[in-house]
């Protein structure tokens, strides 16, 4: 598998198109452009209608209607419990993603540039990326207890591998034709890296960040459900234990909403800042 | 990488990491990390126990059932979304939301809807795996050149033949890629589901060993799990390579 | 020199003012022998074309001259100095354009100067001049994906002009350009050759194109590539493009080259 990622050194013809490793899996920003307003409204409306009907039937004693859930959502915002829960959920997420982002991108770039680093580190992260890291979350408590550090570590454990691997693949597959072009104009190695390789790799690196953030959301919620009863995870557990199902559903929907909006915003930012050519295209 | 003129296979560096693990374990610096050798020894004893075999079986069962549903539903929905705009409009937004949503938050909901048992784990596997399969299948179907479909029509293929003999086969590289990603996600789903349900299969054992600070067995479980996940992903990749040759010439 | 079968061996009658001298170049890719013992001189201020069957090593030779790949044996000298890598006196125009998709036309054209550390205002004014020269005025702030294939290659050409190299190396610059644009482009190229007074080394697949634009045509044999023939089309370039394409000398040269190459195509 790794052998195929060696740089394409053939002298002739256009560079092989890079199959971005994360190309298909995340398209939230485009989602809001691709699907016309009407179909989005219809699609959302039908879903909520189905939910409302299913809740009215009801399909289960633990299945509140859409309006009950929306009402619970309102009250939880009003009484501040949702806001304070997000405070404690988002803090480790932001710290964890910041750390994974910096470490992961640097590590990925180094691996993409150096054969030695690639050989040593890439297989490790390939294993970590395709293995269920969640299994290790229960261990965190033994060292870091149940505080902020434990949750941050859970985020890092899930987010780091995908960020590292995307950075690495992006740099390794940087368009060889552009690299040759830079070399032919006597660009130094440093110029080659900063002016060609990293800009060329940045969309895939950024896609890695988005995938990392998505994994980080999973990690932080999992940590809150499993080891540290705080934040949104605790809100879910608590309302479940007292059979406030509407409140519980509201908390679940809200975290899905928050993660969707965050990821979409990140993608919009990417298109705006990193890829000016996409804005008008 | 090449060392003294010899090509050293990439995955060989894992041996370096294993040795490092062994050394850290031997030094006893971290009680969380027992030496790799004793973990492996524990793994060998563990796989012979009834408990482990039962747990592995139930885990495998949930995984297979969940994945089967995910593949059938995912490919079907993906094909429909790829071919019909109305279906695409209706489901596109949801598929895109759920493919990257924190599904771990949904598991508690599943637990009250489906009970604290295997069904919940099956549904978790399904939910983790299905969306990426839908997206990749849809992309594959979109890639099928129109000329290929027109060719089929002009030779009088029935709709069924058109789909089973042309469209699905032409989209196979993407569908397989989707299934591979789905499998990786499915493994994560089965682990997360069982950890949260925590009274069945692997989740129960993880809970048991971490509660009792039995690190050898804990890591033995983890290693077996990781190895299984890697092997499966490698196997699919192998199949993928076999069909990939025609991805370029479609 | 191994050119016993050359029809017009101009090395004999033209005083050697060669910018680029290729001496005994061989290139092997592992088992594959791409080039064998190439000796060539490229006269200053002329457009020389490398023509030959597919896979005979034209791109390889051009990239060796550019200093982008190392020969297995032999030496290339530019203005008498041996080539060890890319240099400021040579500029390469890439077959696949090699434009940076995230950069505007302006930044792409000025990129060679940017790498040299030239200030922004200065390099942009130079770039603007060459953008105008290749006929892209008004497109300075566009991105490559907004341009047609022909326009993209003009950007690549302007970028090579902007660094003011003596020798321009062009690898099938028109192969990704449609036929109408290609003709227009060939005419523009002739005008630029006239105006810029630079040495051009040009790789193409097309016999007509080679005869139309070249002062000299080097025919390479099938792999391993060797120099099989050097032809100097005798064409009156002051005539209009259409007149040239109907000119008897033009047609005869095309025919002659075709006869020479025909046996390579089975
Ligand atoms: N990096 C490489 N590794 C191995 N073989 C190569 C490599 N680059 C080129 N070759 C081989 O060397 C020979 C010459 O290649 P080259 O690209 O120079 O030919 P060319 O004349 O430019 O061909 P074309 O007309 O198709 O562009 C070809 O047979 C090609 O397959
Ligand atoms: Mg070539």
TrEMBL record, chain A:
Transmembrane segments: 37-54, 93-113, 120-146, 152-171, 204-228, 248-269
Domain of life, per lineage: Bacteria
The UniProt record lists the keyword Cell cycle: no
Signal sequence interval, chain numbering: none
One Gene Ontology biological process: transmembrane transport
Cited Gene3D superfamilies: MetI-like
Alphabetized UniProt keyword annotations: Cell membrane, Membrane, Transmembrane, Transmembrane helix, Transport
Keyword Transmembrane helix: yes
SUPFAM superfamilies assigned to the protein according to its UniProt record, in alphabetical order: MetI-like
Family statement: Belongs to the binding-protein-dependent transport system permease family.
Protein name: NitT/TauT family transport system permease protein
Organism of provenance: Microvirga subterranea
Lineage of producing organism: Bacteria, Pseudomonadati, Pseudomonadota, Alphaproteobacteria, Hyphomicrobiales
TrEMBL record, chain B:
Gene3D superfamilies assigned: MetI-like (1.10.3720.10)
Stored PROSITE patterns: ABC_TM1
Record flagged with keyword Membrane: yes
Transmembrane annotation, as ranges: 57-81, 93-114, 120-141, 189-206, 218-236
Location of the protein in the cell: Cell membrane
Domain ABC transmembrane type-1, first and last residues per copy: 56-236
Key words, A-Z: Cell membrane, Membrane, Transmembrane, Transmembrane helix, Transport
One Pfam family in the UniProt entry: BPD_transp_1
GO CC annotation terms, alphabetical: plasma membrane
Biological process, per Gene Ontology: transmembrane transport
InterPro entries (alphabetical): MetI-like (IPR000515), MetI-like_sf (IPR035906)
Chief subcellular location: membrane
Membrane topology (UniProt): Multi-pass membrane protein
Family recorded in the similarity comment: Belongs to the binding-protein-dependent transport system permease family.
PANTHER family: ABC TRANSPORTER PERMEASE PROTEIN MJ0413-RELATED, ALKANE SULFONATE ABC TRANSPORTER-RELATED, MEMBRANE SUBUNIT
The protein's name: NitT/TauT family transport system permease protein
Organism name: Microvirga subterranea
UniProtKB/TrEMBL annotation, chain C:
Name of the protein in its database record: NitT/TauT family transport system ATP-binding protein
Domain of life (superkingdom): Bacteria
UniProt cross-references to CDD domains, sorted A to Z: ABC_NrtD_SsuB_transporters
An example molecular function term from Gene Ontology annotations: ATP hydrolysis activity
Domain ABC transporter: residue ranges: 20-247
PROSITE patterns reported in the protein's UniProt record: ABC_TRANSPORTER_1, ABC_TRANSPORTER_2
Keyword Transcription annotated: no
Keywords of the record: ATP-binding, Nucleotide-binding, Transport
Family statement drawn from the similarity comment of this UniProt entry: Belongs to the ABC transporter superfamily.
């Amino acid at each position: 598998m790794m052998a195929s990622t060696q740089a394409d050194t053939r002298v002739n013809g256009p560079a092989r198109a890079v199959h971005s490793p994360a190309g298909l899996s995340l398209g939230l920003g485009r989602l809001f452009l691709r699907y016309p307003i009407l179909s989005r409204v219809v699609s959302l409306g039908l879903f909520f209608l189905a939910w409302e009907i299913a809740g009215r039937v009801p399909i289960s004693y633990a299945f509140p209607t859409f309006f009950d859930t929306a009402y619970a959502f309102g009250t939880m915002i009003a009484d501040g419990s949702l806001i304070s829960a997000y405070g404690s959920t988002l803090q480790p997420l932001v710290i964890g993603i910041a750390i994974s982002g910096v470490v992961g991108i640097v590590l990925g770039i180094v691996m993409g540039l150096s054969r030695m680093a690639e050989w040593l580190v890439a297989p490790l992260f390939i294993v970590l990326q395709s293995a269920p890291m969640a299994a290790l979350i229960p261990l965190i408590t033994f060292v870091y207890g149940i505080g902020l550090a434990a949750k941050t570590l859970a985020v890092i454990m899930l987010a780091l591998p995908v960020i590292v691997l995307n950075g690495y693949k992006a740099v390794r597959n940087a368009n060889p034709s552009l690299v040759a072009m830079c070399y032919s104009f006597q660009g130094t190695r440093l110029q080659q890296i900063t002016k060609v390789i990293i800009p060329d790799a940045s969309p895939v690196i950024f896609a890695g960040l988005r995938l990392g953030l998505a994994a980080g959301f999973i990690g932080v919620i999992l940590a809150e459900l499993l080891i540290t009863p705080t934040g949104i995870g605790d809100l879910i557990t608590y309302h479940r234990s007292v059979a406030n199902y509407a409140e519980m559903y509201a908390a679940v929907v809200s975290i899905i909403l928050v993660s969707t909006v965050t990821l979409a915003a990140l993608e919009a930012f990417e298109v705006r800042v990193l890829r000016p050519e996409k804005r008008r295209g | 990488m090449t060392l003294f003129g010899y090509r050293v296979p990439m995955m060989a560096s894992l041996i370096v990491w294993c040795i490092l693990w062994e050394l850290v374990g031997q030094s006893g610096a971290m009680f969380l990390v027992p030496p790799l050798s004793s973990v492996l020894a524990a793994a060998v004893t563990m796989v012979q126990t009834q408990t482990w075999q039962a747990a592995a079986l139930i885990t495998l069962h949930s995984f297979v059932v969940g994945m089967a549903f995910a593949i059938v539903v995912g490919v079907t929905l993906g094909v429909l979304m790829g071919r019909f705009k109305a279906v695409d409009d209706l489901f596109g937004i949801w598929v895109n939301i759920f493919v990257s949503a924190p599904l771990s938050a949904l598991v508690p909901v599943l637990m009250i809807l489906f009970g604290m048992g295997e069904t919940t784990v099956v549904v978790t596997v399904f939910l983790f795996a299905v969306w990426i399969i839908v997206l990749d299948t849809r992309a594959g179907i979109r890639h099928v050149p129109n000329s290929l479909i027109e060719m089929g029509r002009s030779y009088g293929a029935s709709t069924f033949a058109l789909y089973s003999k042309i469209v699905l086969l032409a989209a196979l590289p993407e569908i397989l890629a989707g299934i591979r990603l789905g499998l990786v996600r499915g493994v994560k789903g089965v682990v997360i589901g069982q950890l949260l349900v925590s009274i069945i299969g692997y989740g129960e054992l993880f809970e048991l060993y971490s509660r009792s600070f039995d690190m050898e067995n804990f890591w033995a479980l983890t290693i077996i799990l990781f190895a299984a996940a890697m092997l499966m992903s490698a196997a699919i990749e192998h199949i993928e390579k076999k069909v990939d040759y025609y991805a370029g010439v479609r | 020199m191994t050119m016993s079968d050359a029809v017009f061996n101009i090395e004999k009658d033209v005083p050697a003012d060669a910018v680029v001298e290729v001496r005994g170049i061989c290139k092997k890719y592992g088992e594959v022998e791409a080039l064998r013992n190439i000796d060539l001189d490229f006269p200053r201020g002329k457009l020389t074309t490398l023509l030959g069957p597919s896979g005979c090593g034209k791109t390889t030779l051009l990239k060796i001259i550019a200093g982008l790949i190392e020969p297995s044996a032999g030496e290339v000298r530019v203005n008498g100095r041996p080539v060890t890598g890319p240099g400021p006196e040579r500029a390469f125009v890439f077959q696949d354009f090699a434009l940076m998709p995230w950069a505007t036309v302006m930044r792409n054209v000025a990129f060679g100067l940017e790498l040299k550390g030239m200030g922004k205002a200065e390099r942009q004014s130079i770039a603007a001049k060459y953008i105008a020269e290749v006929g892209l005025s008004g497109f300075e702030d566009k991105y490559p994906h907004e341009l047609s294939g022909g326009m993209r290659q003009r950007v690549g050409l302007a970028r090579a002009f902007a660094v003011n190299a003596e020798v321009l190396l062009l690898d099938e610059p028109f192969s990704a350009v449609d036929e109408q644009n290609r003709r227009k482009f060939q005419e523009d190229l002739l005008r630029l050759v006239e105006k810029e007074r630079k040495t051009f080394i040009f790789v193409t697949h097309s016999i007509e194109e080679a005869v139309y634009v070249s002062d000299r045509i080097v025919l390479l044999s099938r792999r391993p590539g060797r120099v099989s023939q050097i032809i100097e089309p005798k064409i009156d370039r002051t005539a209009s493009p259409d007149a040239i394409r109907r000119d008897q000398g033009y047609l005869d040269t095309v025919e002659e080259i075709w006869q020479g190459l025909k046996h390579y195509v089975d």
